[in-house]
Amino acid sequence: MWYFAWILGLPLAALIAVANAMWLEML
């Protein structure tokens, strides 16, 4: 079920990207 991994992985990757951007702005 590769699509299930995509459904979970894409929002997780987006969340990591947002958290990384926020972290860089706080530095």
Explain what this protein looks like in three dimensions:
Pfam families: YbgT_YccB. The structure is a single chain. This protein has one helix at 2-26. With 27 residues, it is mainly alpha-helical. It has one domain (1-27). The longest helix is centred in the middle third of the chain and has 25 residues, at 2-26.
Outline the secondary-structure elements:
Elements: H1 2-26
Protein name: Cytochrome bd-I oxidase subunit CydX
Organism: Paenirhodobacter huangdaonensis
Pfam family, one: YbgT_YccB
In short:
With 27 residues, the protein is mainly alpha-helical. 93% of the residues lie in helices and 0% in strands.
What does the average pLDDT come to?
A: 94
- Helical segment tally? 1
Secondary-structure-based class equals mainly alpha
Helix content: over 70%
Please report the distance between the alpha carbons of the first and last residues: 39 Å
Beta-strand segment tally: 0
What ranges have pLDDT less than 50 throughout 5 or more consecutive residues?
Answer: none
Largest sheet: none
Strand content: under 5%
Q: Could you tell me the radius of gyration in angstroms?
A: 12 Å
- Give helix and strand order, one letter per element, not per position: H
Counted up, domains total 1
Instruction: Indicate the overall shape.
Output: rod-shaped
